[in-house]
Structures are given as structure tokens and as C-alpha cells.
Amino acid sequence: MLLKIFDFSTITAAFHLWLSGKMSSVLVMLIEMTIAGMCALGLFVFLGLVLVYMERKVSAVMQIRIGPNRVGPWGTIQAVADTVKLLLKEGLTPDGADKFLFNFAPILVIIVSMLILAPIGFGKGLVIWDLNIGVLYISAVSSIGVIGILMAGWASNNKYSLIGAMRSGAQIVSYELSVGLSLISVVILTGSLQMSDIVNSQANGWWIFKGHIPIIISFIIFVIASTAETNRAPFDMAEAESELTGGFHTEYAGMKFAMFFLAEYINIFIVCAIGATLFLGGWMPFHIGGLTAFNDIMDYIPSPFWFFGKTFFLIFVIMWFRWTFPRLRVDQLLTLEWKYLLPISMVNTLLVTLMAIMGWYF
Amino acid sequence: MELENATEEQDDLIINVGPQHPSTHGVLHIKLKVNGETITDVEPHLGYIHRSIEKMCESHTYRQFIYTTSRMDYLSAHINNQACALAVEKGLQVEVPARAKAIRILMAELTRLASHQLWWGCTGLDLGAVTPFFHAFREREMINDIMEKTCGARLTMNYAVPGGVMADLHPDFVKDVKAFLAEFKGKFHEYDELLTGNIIFEERVKGIGYISKEDAISFGCTGPVARASGVSCDIRKLHPYDGYENLQFEEIIRTEGDCYGRYLARMDEMKQSMYIIEQLIDNIPDGDYQAKTKALIKLPKGEFYQRVETARGEFGVYIVSEGATTPYRIKFRSPGFSNLSALKHMVVGGKIADLVAVMAMLDLVIPDIDR
After folding, report:
1. Pairing of the two strands B29-35 and B302-309
2. N or C, where is chain A less crowded by C-beta within 10 Å?
3. DSSP letter string over B181-249?
């Protein structure tokens, strides 16, 4: 068990010890928070670039195109070029807009995305803040995001933006219920809201394999509802380019638009990371019971690879949706949630509870 | 319609859709009155791309005026040209060679296919699916290449002239068309897989924009829009021209009357167009591609009318001649204008997204509506 699944907490603990020996505890905390913040920011920027590149390449494959291939090798730094372009553009604020809200909305949206990164475990011991109510924290903070969108839509003083924002509000508030219920089904089985506990409970098998059909149902509901919650096609009612010409961000340009854009991709990453953590074992390697040699080989693959592999698989699925499905109509969207997904989730939660009480899982 | 004063009386929101809007496919301006998401009133405004083509035609000779018609319904450019050529030929009493007739029909059906492919791609785009657009353009590109080889232009063909066609076919034409047919037939199932069978797509178009047979007739709807409501109005069957009477094809008539019916009507029309091309491609008669006509055509005094079936419906050319080298008056009957007039009837009571779906299924080409 020498190197098997390297634990990052040894590094952080050693660093903490070394720092504590040199300065006071307040200073240590400040330095550690700064480093964690910088890492989060770095990850943020990196994810933005990678996901934008990935989206463009995935869409290109679906649409029999080549995709970006001019800037850098295989077009890899196309996203950087795009960002530079957006930085150089004028950050226009429309005349009739509510200046403060208009400029604050993108910042709020991006702050929310950054906050949710905190409890996610990227690898064994690699987590910014492993708080004991991780799942609750995520559902609570993610619901602030819709306020940013509503603010943007209202402050723009544009009819299209307003309709987009109202649609987005109705959509996110409804779909949060399904997301919450599908998360709860895993929480019931684990008996803990802490993300690290949830991952550790999957050491002998991921919940999607251990939890029988009810967990598979809640996983599917989670994927559908989280696609809707991130405003992605086929649920991109809030943008609805062919109807509302861009929805809530119609009036945004330059870096302010880029912030919405970035927040969208970070949100995709976050919902996929949560899905991977709760249902697909987080950073836990793939094991098949009985095959010791195979399991040992799997154990030697570093834990962040497992986490990011699973997350990016889910991200690919969500991108796949976007590039193959037409958009739903707004009333159909709400019908889907209130008439189908929510009742199914409720019954499903009852089933999972029954399963947990009777111990009908591995 | 009192749209201007509406805000003072009610709390309805008035939205200007267009003239610059992604799903109006041109510079159509629609004044939309909505109550929440529900449309309570619709008023299309035209005039943003009016080029007074009909007036322009009066100062052009009978050979020249045909070229302006390519700029009306640019997706059915060849069929427009064909209609004008036929109208002039009616006045001249000239017999068009069999080869020219066959070439015209082949080109017309290829145009129809290209137009329907573009419509299919744009329908996907309007309903929020971007991928179909690229799939449609993959095959449409082959048609455009055939057009380019044959008459030098990819979109505004100007290939039909009074008396026949401007030039003979390119030697590769038969081979290229056969290659295209084989390719398109092999890939047609992808069209169905991407949109037709998709549950979201079906939900978006089934029962949307319903128009009954009687209403379709009274609004003057033609083409797939009317045929989806059960109106038999295919000019190729009712008043055959250029030898359509010798060809076997079905007039697609559906009874749904909604957007889904219009969608399926067009999809089936594509198959019929392929069938027509298949019948003709190996049987293009030999001989002249153009009848002898005078360099400066003079039509006898009188009125001449010719109707054809474009990809969008019935297109009519009405020429009033005073015996001069230029027409005294020209009037075009464009299919898009009549179809657009039924827009309000179709969308009021629906959602904003339904407006986009209905407009996509009407297959509007704004320069055709607004000449």
C-alpha cells in the first residue's frame, strides 16, 4: 500500500506544520487562505479555457467540422485569443440601465460559481474546505446564482432580457427541487452531508452500482435537472438565441459578457463534479470485486485523474445534449419538471429511504 | 390593429421582433404583443428590403428582366427565372426544345431540393438545434456545385432564358447529379434521426400553428403550407408546364394542418423531387437547348400569365404588353406574401417560441415577400 492512491492531506498537513512553526496562527490562516484562493482562481481560469476549447471541439465533431485549429497547436489557445479580444472590447452599459445592478450582476454570478468550488474534493485530501454540511452548502449557495441572472435581466432595461430572466427564474427555482431530491437520495444512503464522507462511503463500489435502480433513476434525474439548472440546451430558455436573441445577457458586451460565459462553464463543471462525487465515486478508483490485480492497477492511477475523468465524461454528456437536441418550450420545460421529474423524485426518495432502512444495498 | 395605443389600455408587453433578429431570416419586422409568454397579437411589418423590382422590370427588356427575379426568392431563383421565361414564351408562341424543357425541370427540382435542405437546417436552428444546419449544408453544397458547373452561379442562376436555357449542360452534369442522389439518399435517414423522430422536436411542432383547409384557402396559402392542410394546389399537377405532365410524381397532401404536417410535407416533397430527377436524368433528350428567338424580343399586345410551383408555393408572373420591347406592367404573385398573411391566424394564443416554430415552417424568404 506504499503509493496506492496518494493522499494529498499529507502535503497540506506538513505545510501547515512547517508554517505554524514560523509564525502566529492568524498569519498562517491568512497565508493558507490566500494560497487556496489563488489555487481556486487558477483552476477557474484553467477550467474556463479547457471547457470552452472542449465545447468547440465537441460541437465541431458533431457538426462535421474541424473546429478551432489556427491559434496555437490544434487551436488550443483559441480561448486565450478570444479572452484577449473580449478584454479589449468596450464594456458598454446601456443608457437606460440600472448602472449598479447591471455591472454587479456578472460579478455576483461568478462569485457564486467560485463559492461552490469550496467543498468539492478534487482528489484524496485535495479539497479547499471539507465542511460537514457540504451538500446542503452546495444547494444553498447555488440558488443565489439565479439572483444574478434576474438582476442582469431587470437592470438591462431590455424586454428580451427581462423575459429571459423571468424564464430563468422559473426554470432554476423549479429544477432545484429535483436536483435537491436526487442529491438527498445519496445523502440518505451515506448518512452524511460531508463530501469526503460520501466519497469514502463509495470505497467498495460507487453508488450508481451499489444503489440499485432508485439511485440510477436519481442519477438520470440529476443529469437532466442540472442541465436545466445551468441553463444549457435543450433547456437554454433564458438565452434562447432564436427567440430572445440572447436572453438575459443580450445587452452585455466585452468582459462582462465573458463573466457570464465563464460562469456558465464553471457551473457545468461544478454540477458534473457534484454528480461524479455523489454517484460515480468522486476520486475513488474503479474496482471490480474479486479481481485483486485489476483493482491494484486501478489504485495506482492518481486520484485527481479519476475525479477529472469522471467529471469530464459527464461534461461531455451535457455537451452532447446541447449539440443534438432542439430547445424545449418554456411551458413544456415546467411541465417536465412539475408533472414528471418532481413526482418521480419524490417516490424515488421514499424508495431510497426504504432501502436505507432495510439495508437493501451492498 | 391598435398596437400603438395598446400599452396605455392594458399591461401587455409589446416586443419588436426584427428587423434584425436571428429567426426572422431577413429583415422582417414583427410587432408582437405578449401577455407573459402568450402572444395576444401579431403584426408583420414589411418594407425593409423593398427594391421595387416590379417597377424596375418595366424598364428592362424581356431578356433582361428575368435576372431581377433571381433576387426575389433567391432560394428558388431558377424556378422564378423559369416562370418568367415561360410567360415570355407564351407571348412569343415559341416552341421550346424538349432538351431545354428537361434541363429546366432537372434544375428546378435540384433548386427545390436545395431550398428544402436549407429550410430543414434553418428549422433546426430556429428550434434551438444547431447541428442539423451543418448536415443540411453538407448535401446542399453538392447541389450548389452542380449549379456552379452548369450555369456559373451558385444561387442566382439566371439559367432560363426565353426559348430554353442559356447554355448546354456541363459534360459532368449527369455524373454529378447521380453522385448527389446516391449521397443524399444514403444520408437522408440522418435527417430523420436528428429532427423528425426527436421527441422534443415533435412536442415543439405538433398541434402548433394550426390552420384549417378553409382558412388556408381563404388566406391564399399555397405550397407545402396549404398542402399540409389538405388543399390540393401543386401547380405541377394542376397546370403542368415544361413537361411535368409526362412525369410521375405524387402531390404530397397531408391533413394535420399544423407545423408538423408542414414539416412532413416538405420532407416527402424532397423524396418526390429526387424521384423526378431519377426519371429524367437518364432520359435527357438530345437536340437544341434553346429555340431561336430574336435578339430583341417584342411581345404582341396583350396580357400573359404564367404560374409555377416554387419551393414555397405558387409563383405567378403577370405581364401586360403594349407591343414594345419592354413590358408595360409586370406583377408577381409571390407565395411567401400570402403564407405570411396567415401568420396571425396561426400564432395568436401560442407562446413566443411557437412564433419562431411557425415562421420556420412557413419557410419565409423576405426578399420574396417584399419585392
Report:
1. unpaired
2. N
3. HHHHHHHHHHHIIIIIT-HHHHHHHTTSS---HHHHHHTT--HHHHHTTT----HHHHS--TTGGGS--
| Count of the separate structural domains present in chain A | 1
Confidence at residue B1, expressed as pLDDT on a 0 to 100 scale:
46
Q: Cβ(A282)–Cβ(A203) under 8 Å? A: no
CB contact under 8 A, B353 and A234: no
Alpha-carbon torsion A62, A68, A73, A77, what sign? Answer: negative
Mutate to test the interface with A, among B120, B126, B127 (most CBs of A within 10 A): B127
Under 8 Å between Cβ of B283 and B196:
no
Measure the CA angle with vertex B313, ends B310 and B319; round to 5°.
Answer: 70
- Give the distance between the most distant pair of CA atoms in chain B: 70
Question: How far B9 CA sits from the closest chain A CA (Å)?
Answer: 19
Please determine, for residue A90, whether its predicted confidence score (pLDDT) is greater than 60: yes
In the block, which residue shows the cell 442539423?
Answer: B132
Of A163, A245, A331, the CB nearest to B22: A245
Short-list A306, A311, A309, A308, CA closest to A5: A306
Secondary element (H or E) of residue B175: helix B173-191
Residue A4: band (very low, low, confident or very high) from pLDDT cuts 50, 70, 90: low
pLDDT of residue B92: 87
The residue ranges of every structural domain in chain B are 51-369
What beta strand segments (E) does chain B contain?
Answer: 13-17, 29-35, 38-45, 160-161, 164-165, 302-309, 314-321, 329-333
Nearest residue to A362 via CA among A189, A227, A231, A236: A189
Give the C-alpha separation, A87 to A256, whole Å. Answer: 9
Q: What percent of chain B has pLDDT over 70?
A: 97
Does residue A280 form part of some domain? yes
Domain boundaries, position A210: 89-358
Strands B29-35 and B314-321: unpaired
CA angle A54, A237, A150 (to 5 degrees): 100
Query: Chain B 13-42, CB below 8 Å of chain A: which residues?
Result: 13, 15, 21-23, 37
Q: Please state, in angstroms and rounded to a whole number, the distance separating the CA atoms of residues A34 and A38.
A: 6
The whole-number average pLDDT for the span B39-66 is 88
The residues near B360 (Cβ < 8 Å, ≥ 6 apart) are B23, B119, B122, B123, B126, B127, B259
Distance from CA of A139 to the nearest CA of B (A): 28
Q: Which amino acid is at A279?
A: F
Identify the band that residue B318 occupies on the pLDDT scale cut at 50, 70 and 90: very high
Question: Cβ contacts of residue A287 below 8 Å, gap of 6+?
Answer: A204, A205, A294, A295, A298
Query: Quick one: CATH architecture of B51-369?
Result: Orthogonal Bundle (1.10)
pLDDT tens for residues B8-48? 556 778 888 878 887 777 788 888 888 878 888 888 888 88
Q: Which of A294-298, B161-165, B254-258, B294-298 has the weakest average pLDDT?
A: A294-298
Q: Does B46 touch chain A (CB under 8 A)?
A: no
In this prediction, residues A59-82 reach a mean pLDDT of 85
Q: How far is B74 from chain A (nearest CA, A)?
A: 22
B321 touches chain A (CB under 8 A): no
A167, A161, A329, A168: which is closest to B356 by C-alpha?
A329
Domain membership of residue A160 (yes or no) is yes
Q: Does A65 touch chain B (CB under 8 A)?
A: yes
